[in-house]
Amino acid sequence: METEEGVIQDSLVIERLDAAEASQDHISAEIESIHAAYRTSVDDGGAEETQPRLDFSPYRSSLLRHPTKNLHHTDPETIELWSPAFGHQDVHPLESNLTIQHNGEPLGERIIVRGRVLDGDGRPVRNQLIEVWQANSAGRYIHKRDQHPAPIDPNFTGVGRAITGDDGSYEFLTIKPGPYPWKNHFNAWRPAHIHFSLFGTDFTQRMITQMYFPGDPLFALDPIYQSITDPLARDRLVAAYDHSITSHEWATGYNWDIVLSGSNRTWMEEEDAE
Ligand SMILES: [Fe+2]
Questions:
Q1: Fewer CB in a 10 Å sphere around the end CB: N or C, the chain?
Q2: CB contact set of 251 (below 8 Å; sequence gap of 6+)
Q3: Residue 213 DSSP one-character state
């Protein structure tokens, strides 16, 4: 339980962070320093990292809320006695189309995102519930916390669901999201991304990650993306443009496979990031 003293201390830390709002150059220098130390460690025989650093100082807004203690395994059999569950029949195939949820067409670049969910041995993970959420083409989320002055699109909510097929495949039709500002540091912008949640076969297996678009100039500046110190692990979050998915006079296509375990696994968040 949090003591009053703890709350006051936390608010003092937050005030200090606000007062010393870092510049992008400062954040970028911190990122480079941490990455250089990681490269040295690997060169010296240290372990390669595939997951994000939880205690990653350039990601300022996570400093007071990242897990600091070892995670405890819960007993899934107990949890699942009362946890929510979904039935495959509850997810309609049209829920994977984010462009038909209102009366008109959403604005922006129509895209197809297609891929497969695989386990560490390359086997398809079938009947997997995938949920996505994203900003609109102007970089604006529909929720109230997002107040930056970009337009809301009345024809775009930015959420969708799909169930993977027998070959582990999934597909979404959506609008390419825009980059958006956030309050991590002065003039901080997130690269365009789509949030993905994989429900797992049980409620206790839910995992969350983000998909990015190739060639984004904001990659190097983003402390969330860069909290994964290993460049190969970071690259796995970036979809590939795929012209065979691009649809004639309709939508551009991207391919993104998600690997749930093994050395090529996709980075998964411990909790929702910005
Ligand atoms: Fe986001």
A1: N
A2: 110, 111, 112, 173
A3: -
Looking at residue 260, its pLDDT comes to 84
Ligand 1 center–CA 87 separation, angstroms: 27
Q: Is 195 a catalytic residue?
A: yes
Label residue 51 exposed, middle or buried (CB < 10 Å: 0-12, 13-18, 19+). middle
**Which of 60, 116, 185, 195 does the annotation list as catalytic?**
195
How many residues make up the chain in this entry? Answer: 274
The pLDDT value given to residue 8: 43
pLDDT band of 63, cuts 50, 70, 90: confident
pLDDT of residue 61: 84
Residues facing residue 133 across a β-bridge: 159, 195
Nearest to 197 by CA among 258, 125, 122: 258
- Supply the pLDDT for residue 2: 41
Residue 84: pLDDT band (50, 70, 90) is: low
pLDDT at 262 over 70: no
Q: Is 170 known to be catalytic?
A: no
From the list 193, 234, 236, 265, the catalytic residue is 193
156: helix, coil or strand?
coil
- The rounded radius of gyration (Å) of the Cα atoms in the chain is 20
Tokens standing for 60? Answer: 């300022």
Q: How far is the CA of 261 from the centre of ligand 1 (A)?
A: 24
Distance, CA of 274 to CA of 267 (rounded, Å): 15
Q: Which of 59, 170, 180, 254 is catalytic?
A: 180
Separation of CA 45 and ligand 1 centre (Å): 35
CA distance 272 to 101: 24
180 annotated active-site: yes
Banded pLDDT at 204 (limits 50, 70, 90): low
pTM across the whole model? 0.85
Q: Is 38 a catalytic residue?
A: no
